[in-house]
Amino acid sequence: MAKRIGILTGGGDVPGLNSVIKSVVYRASELGFEVVGIRRGWKGLTHMQPGGEPDPEFIRPLDRRSTRAIDRTGGTILHTSRTNPAKMKAGSLPEHLDAHRRAAMETGQGMYDLTPLVLENLERLGVDRLVAIGGDDTLGYGHRLGAEGVPLMAIPKTMDNDVQGTEYCIGFSSAVTRARELINRQRTTLGSHERIGVFRIFGRNSGYTAWYAAYVTSGRCVIPEASFDLEQLATLMMDDRTANPSNYAFVIASEGAICSVGTLGEDGEADAFGHRHQIDVAHALAEELRRRTGVETVNSDLTYDLRSGDPDALDQMVATTFANVAMDLLADGVSGRMSAICDGKYAHAPLPDPALGPRKIDVATMYNLDRLRPQYGGKLGSPLLLGPPLAG
Fold this sequence. Notes:
By secondary structure, the chain is α/β, with parallel strands linked by helices. It has helices spanning 17-31, 44-47, 99-105, 115-125, 136-147, 172-193, 208-217, 230-243, 281-293, 303-307, 313-331, 363-366, and strands at 3-9, 33-38, 59-62, 88-89, 106-108, 111-112, 129-134, 152-156, 196-201, 220-222, 249-254, 258-259, 262-263, 266-267, 277-278, 297-301, 337-342, 345-350, 367-368, 373-374. The protein is 35% helix and 20% strand. It has a seven-stranded mixed sheet, with helices on both faces.
């Protein structure tokens, strides 16, 4: 039987995922591997129907012909979900799972660990190597599978750029490029009406996307790593507005930004990884700034625009290279690693340990607490993308 690689994408979509899929398939064909795509992330390995032939709803054979043009578009042809097989609620279990199997995998309090089913399905599919593309949550479960002995390579993607062990994640450059374009476009409206603008950007626990968007637009930003004072922010907005010939100002807010009086809160039901939707920080800040300054404000949610559409050139290049680094390692019999950028160079790193949490902005070297903006000085010797060096 031919060697077979399984590939999946999990969590939120970002530009560049299809470039990874295509590059894995093309390189696999050169190395004598078959490739099967697993649809809807880890859900494909928990919900595929038992039986003889692979379930077409969740399993898709991939070859050079079927992936030839997919890198020209955004999103993921394999689709995605936020499924965590190790922590599934009763209402999310596959219908074909009988009561006996359910009971055997129950971990208490209505939660189930379907890892035994995932391992069975990988064996059924003949998958002896797995490529998982995702962020902290998706790769956190990959860490679990690696501990179970599954030969796995991880590829980090998230526009938050917060996966431990790498200085860069696929989707990040496209997100920042798009943020810069959208913010610069909306400056004309802010200036025409002499308003204060608040732009909301993804970043539940890490402020990389907001920080870099502020860096390239010369803007202020508030981030999860450093609490801010509302009166301080209002004063800075008025200072900026006064100094601006067009009489406007703006601030970029991570969704997880922390006010000195506490978080702005969450709402809705938690997903499979325990995350709930953040209260709209842009709306809340715009209301507070209007109340404190007396100036008309406007809030703009940039979040989903940043993850939609085609990858920029940097993301396409990194996606293609990460895929080939992963294939090099698998061909050499190496597994349990993640394609990475370390010290500005392509490398590989351990699978992210969920216990470490997300990678965060180094406030002391990167963020000006008094000015609520990126530090621009002292960059001599910094890597191209300016982030803090990874711990050695």
